[in-house]
Design a protein that fits this description.
alpha+beta, HIT family, subunit A, 5 strands, about 160 residues, single chain, five-stranded antiparallel β-sheet, globular
């Protein structure tokens, strides 16, 4: 079965900028984002002293966000007690914000620890928080190997930011 292709021309500027940020020059995209301001243009939604929340650049669905420690660590056990507490308080804040913004039927919270577990960027610990709805899996994903997102990242940022 051939992979179907759909036009998403509105994402052209975004894809061009992401391609530039994936050059492996030793810099960590998450460490760079940790220093960026909370702003729609950066995708950073919220910050605390030790953690921050950013839009997932490649979302599985609407409202998919990432929670990260500000310090560059690759494993949960590398977090100090204060970082661990702050991180999971930020996960909880993320759930509350997504529930307020979207009113989902459920929520996925998960971490892929290490490359073998599927972490796209295994050198900087991050967790996923993703609102879910009954019946939100459809033929496009399961059969068509294609994701259709009904909103832009900018729209997601605007919906979620005010609830932090």
């Amino acid at each position: 079965m051939a992979l179907e292709r759909f036009s998403a021309a509105w994402r052209e500027d975004y894809v061009a900028n992401v391609a530039q940020s994936h050059v492996d020059d030793g810099a960590c995209v998450f460490c760079t984002l940790a220093e960026e301001p909370v702003d729609e243009s950066t995708g950073v939604l919220a910050k605390s002293d030790l953690s921050f929340v950013v839009l997932n650049a490649f979302p599985y669905g609407s409202g998919h966000i990432l929670v990260l420690p500000r310090r560059h660590v690759s494993a949960v056990q590398e977090l100090s007690d204060a970082e661990y507490e702050d991180y999971f308080l930020m996960v909880r804040r993320s759930v509350v914000a997504l529930e307020a913004a979207y009113g989902p039927d459920g929520m996925n919270i998960g971490m892929n620890l290490g490359q073998a577990a599927g972490a796209g960027i295994p050198k900087h610990l991050h967790g996923h928080v993703l609102p879910r709805w009954l019946g939100d899996t459809n033929f496009m994903t399961t059969i068509g190997e294609t994701r259709v997102l009904p909103e832009s990242l900018q729209s997601t940022w605007r919906k979620v930011h005010d609830h932090f």
